[in-house]
Each structure stands twice: as C-alpha cells, then as structure tokens.
Amino acid sequence: MNYTGAEIIVHMLEQKGIEIIAGIPGSANLPLYKALHGSKIKHVLARHEQGAGFIAQGMARSTGKAAVCFATSGPGATNLVTAIADAKLDSVPVVAFTGQVASSFIGTDAFQEIDTYGLTIPITKHNFLVRSTCELPEIIIEAFHIAESGRPGPVVIDIPKNIQSEVCNIELWPEFKTPEKYDSIEDEKVGEIIKTINTAQKPLLFVGAGIIESKAEKLLYQLATRNNIPVTSTLRGLGCFPPNHPLYVGMIGMHGTKYANQLMEEADVVIALGVRFDDRATGKLNEFCKNATLIHVDIDKSEINKLKMAHLSIHANVKEVIRQILPGIAENRRLSWLQEVELKKGELPYVEAPDNGDPFHPLRIIQEVARVVPENTIITTDVGQHQMWVAMKYPFSASRTFLTSGGLGTMGFGVPVAIGAALANPEKKVVCFSGDGSFLMNIQELATIAEQKCNIAIIIFNNGYLGLVRQQQELFFDQKYIGSKFHVNPDFAGIAKNFGISSVDLEKSEHPLNDLEQALKVEGPMLINVPIHYSENVFPMVPPGGANKIMMD
Ligand SMILES: Cc1ncc(C[n+]2csc(CCOP(=O)(O)OP(=O)(O)O)c2C)c(N)n1
Ligand SMILES: [Mg+2]
Predict the structure, then answer these.
(1) Which tens digit of pLDDT belongs to each residue from 492-534?
(2) 2-169: what fold?
(3) Residues lining ligand 1, judged by CB closer than 6 Å?
C-alpha cells in the first residue's frame, strides 16, 4: 500500500507507543501535521519550540522512555536547539522531528531554510537528513534505537517537505528494536572489583544518573548495606538512594555536603557508578579522591579515563555490574569507618534554615513543600540559587522525582519540563521551583499549562536578582554588581491570573506558611510567589576551580 512520508512517520510513532507529541506547526512540517490529524496521538501545542523541546524532555526524564517533539524548519529548528543541547548533556532520549525546505531548495537560502543537520551535529547523539520517503521507517527505528540504547541522548530527524508528501509502497512494516543494554562484562574484572571492595578499609560509593538509567537502585542499596559503604550522589543521581539512610552522606561537589566532600579525600577505594566526573562534582580534578583506588563503571566507553584515570574500569551497564559483583561482596560492619563518617557528620552539620522565625527562608519553604506534597511528587527546577537550595534540602526518595538541568544549566527549563512531567504522569503532582529570572525565560508556556489544565504548582523564589550571579559577584568579583539586579519585576501572581492560572502572593499573606500549604493542596495549575531576601547565599560552596575539601560558608 502507498503511504506518504508524513503518514509513515505518524504510523511509526503510533507503533512505537508515542502518546503525546509537543510541537508547533509551520510551513515546512504542515504535511506531517495533516497526517497527525485523526491519529490517536495527542498533540500539545507549545507556545515556543524551546518549550516543546523541554516538554518532550519532561516526558522523557520522568518516564525514562524516549519522547518526541515537532518543529518547523528555520526558526522552529533554531528555537529547539537549547532544549536539544540540554538533553545531550544530561543524556535524555528525545527524538526531534524538524521540517525542512523541499529537497530541491536545500542550499539556496530558501525561505526558512537553515542547515538543521549541520547545526545539530555537536548537540545530538546522532542526526539524520532524510533523502527519500522510503528510508523513513528504517531511519525512525534507528533514531529511537540510538536515543534509548546505552547512554541515552537526543536525535534529530530533519525531513524535507517533499519527502513528507511523496509516497512509498509499504507491504510489511519493519519492527522497532529493543534498546541495547551493554551487559557483557569481563570476568576477571568482576573478581578484581570484588577483591578491591572486600579488602578496602574506607570505601565510598560515588553514584550518578547511571544508577537511575539502568534501574540499579535496589542493587545499589544491597551493595551499600551488605558491605556498609557510605554513599554520595551527584546532582543528577539524587533520589537513587534513601536520603535519610545512615549510610547516605548527601550530594558531592560545589554545593554538596562538607562531609561528603571530605570523605572523598579520606576514602581508600572510591566506587564510581554511572558518573562522568563533571567539574561541578569534582572541583579541582587532581585533588579529587586523590588518595583512593578508583573503580569506574559506565555505559559510555568515552567517559572511562576521560577526566580521571581509573585503576579499575568496566564499560558496561551499571546494574549488570552490581548484579555480578554482589554475590562476592562480603558482609562487613566497618565500625571504625562508619564511626569516622558519623563524626564528620556531627562536626560539619548540614545547612538548616535559621531558627529566627523567618517564614521566607528558602530552606524553610523547601522543607514545608516536602512536608505537604505527596511523596511521589515530581519536582522540577530552573537554574540558580533556588535550584541548589532544592538539591541540597529536598528529601528526594525516589528516582525520576527530581528533574533538573545538570549539564547545560539552562534557565527556562523548569516550567516546560514540569508540563512534560505532568502530561506523562497525570496521577502525580508536579512542583516547579523557579527563580524570578529563569521563570521569564519560558513564561509563555503558562498558556500551555492553562490549556492542558496540568496539575503543576510553580513556586517562584523571588529575590529581585539573578541570584546566583549576584552571589558570584559578591564573593569573587569584588562586589561589582552589574546586570544582576531586576530594577523592575512584574507582578508574577497577577500575570498568572491573566494566563488563567490561580495564584497566591505570599508577600501579601498574613499566614504565609499556611497559605503555602493551602495553595499546594489545590489540584491543577497554581503559581505561588515567595519573597526571598536578596542577600541570601547558597552555602556551603566550593569556590569555582577550588578543591572540594575547602568549602566556604
Ligand atoms: C539561559 C541561561 N542564561 C544565563 C545563565 C547564567 N545564570 C546562571 S544562574 C543565573 C541566575 C538565575 O536567576 P533566577 O532564576 O532568578 O534564580 P536565583 O539564582 O535568583 O535563585 C544566571 C543568569 C544560565 N544558566 N542560563
Ligand atoms: Mg532570582
């Protein structure tokens, strides 16, 4: 039977089980939209393509499955770029379908022509420019396979308009492939790892998003508790280990706990699982775990020995490696090491909201939110001080409940990612912690929230500043404040109302914590403006470029 390229795409997406697509139509992808008409796939009209890209990310990050966004050629594709780059740095499986001018116009500076293929080479795991309608099924299968296999990542498929309209005869639809997990492991390395852990005096588990991607949380728990190994997490690993467990020492790095950063110096064996030694986590690299034998397991071969030479490394699925080493791991009480850990925790207590009755201290607000919302609530953040406070204080107790832009650190991430999370998890509440700077970067998506009636509460930490920039200027640029203060800020609660979204301004509230609780109990879209004192800083902190063991506070 003959199908147009657009019909092939929609059929393949249905076959893949895609239920929601975020996007914006335009001249170069209108044939695709025509084919989407009547499909069981729901189209969510974003208000900006960056919003669409991040909505897809919210679906992918919260479920672990590849998600899809659509954009037209030229400005549609360029607007997607930030969301795609963000997905690349945080290994998120997004498949972006972009319209392109007709094949015969490519290279002529045609209306809305941009070289999307060339533009997205460095920010995708892979990308395609489709040359003929009949290659679409194989390309789509390959695109999802690449996006979801091994270390996930974004893929772009750029499709000229004529390819969407031309027909191809298809008798038998090809099948999607199961993502590859890279389970093969060399035996002697498994034995060496077991021996190194069993003979260690002061081992430390250093875990990241690879635990979440490979669904290794339970096995990690068994490994840690059987041998009594303390656990520290990267920003993107938060949620993979119970936050209140005695073995948990909190987040590592620039805004991590002092004791995690110091224990990293004390450890004699560091077991790094699904981490990539990002500079925000390691601080000054040659000071990082410099006394330890380093074991590194990662699914991406290019991460092994990229920044830190490992004494023992395995390129494999983290879950499979833990599964294979577990039977050989001895039970060990590690009394003296755990005593040292407890001592450090006592000496270097973690940040708390000051006991001065200020209801608006950011850490107090975060604690209140955590107390009030259901445990399975999905938290998204934007980028800035508010993001770091949330990472430090929110007790994430499950994987995929904390969606944050780690690698790219993209302001404007929080709101559209919350939409994606809400659409893909209609049974869950979503809370987005944003800043007064970041929020404005994708504020147009409030219209999408209102239209979709998403169960999202947006909490704006309103300090009148690009707070994290102001903090850096205060601490490292001789208090030469420039370009970080908002001399005029809008009335966020008023704006929300005009978008059709309920709102509360805690600045005008007589009982702010009570009103916060009531607002969080509302089902559906809600915006809460929280006045934060502008001079609050995120501490403790490793100065940029410094060694992790020396933290300012
Ligand atoms: C798109 C983008 N532009 C600039 C930056 C640099 N930057 C990092 S944090 C920050 C300030 C964020 O301000 P706000 O959202 O108000 O959060 P706050 O730090 O005040 O909590 C800026 C400008 C960025 N991360 N992303
Ligand atoms: Mg701010």
Answers:
(1) 999 999 999 999 999 999 999 999 999 999 999 999 999 999 9
(2) Rossmann fold (3.40.50)
(3) 382-386, 409-412, 435-438, 461, 463, 465-469
